[in-house]
Amino acid sequence: MARESLPQSDGPFLLAYEPVWAIGSGRAASVGEISAMHDALRNLAGPQTPLLYGGSVKPENAGALAEIRNVDGFLVGGASLDPETFIKIAAQLNEAERNCERASV
Predict the structure, then answer these.
(1) What is the reported pLDDT for 25?
(2) Among positive and negative, which fits the CA dihedral 91, 93, 97, 102?
(3) Start-to-end Cα distance in the chain
(4) CA distance 87 to 42
(5) Could you give the CA distance from residue 92 to residue 13 in angstroms, rounded to a whole number?
(6) Of 7, 43, 75, 102, which sits with the fewest C-beta atoms within 10 Å of its C-beta?
(7) Distances in Å between the alpha carbon of 102 and those of 62, 76, 91?
(8) Residue 59 · residue 44 · CB < 8 Å
(9) Structure pTM?
(10) Taking 80 as the threshold, does the pLDDT of residue 76 lie above it?
(11) Which SUPFAM superfamilies does this chain map to (predicted)?
C-alpha cells in the first residue's frame, strides 16, 4: 500500500482494515497479524489517523483486540445487527479502557 492511496485532503479521516479472508468468515486475524498490519498502517497514515480493525469483532474478542497497539477502534460488522451483542462489545471496550487507565496510574 502506498501513501498515494490515502486521501489527499487536509481534512481528518480514519482508516479501517479487515483482512479479505475474514470478511463474512467469522474468524478474526491473530493478535500478531493485526499488530503487524496496524503498525504498517500507522507508519503510512501517521500518528493522528485513527486506525480501526474490522475483522469479526465479537464480545468474546473485543477486549483482547482493544489492547493491540495502534488499534484505535473497531468497524463492527455483523455483530452490530444484534443490539445485545453490540452492547456486550461496548462493555468489553469500556472494561479494556478502565484496565488501561489503572495500568497507567
Answers:
(1) 81
(2) positive
(3) 38
(4) 28
(5) 25
(6) 102
(7) 19, 26, 17
(8) no
(9) 0.80
(10) yes
(11) Triosephosphate isomerase (TIM)
pLDDT at 96 over 70: yes
What's the confidence (pLDDT) of residue 104? 61
Amino acid present at 102: R
C-alpha dihedral sign at 13, 32, 44, 55: negative
The side-by-side arrangement of strands in the sheet containing 15-17 is 15-17, 51-53, 73-74
Domains recognised in the chain with CATH numbers: 14-104 (3.20.20.70)
Residue 45, C-beta contacts closer than 8 angstroms, at least 6 positions apart: 6, 15, 51
More confident position, 105 or 54: 54
Give the mean pLDDT of 9-32: 83
For residues 96 and 91, give the distance between their C-alpha atoms in angstroms, rounded to a whole number. 9
pLDDT at 22: 82
Output the nine-digit C-alpha cell for 22: 475474514
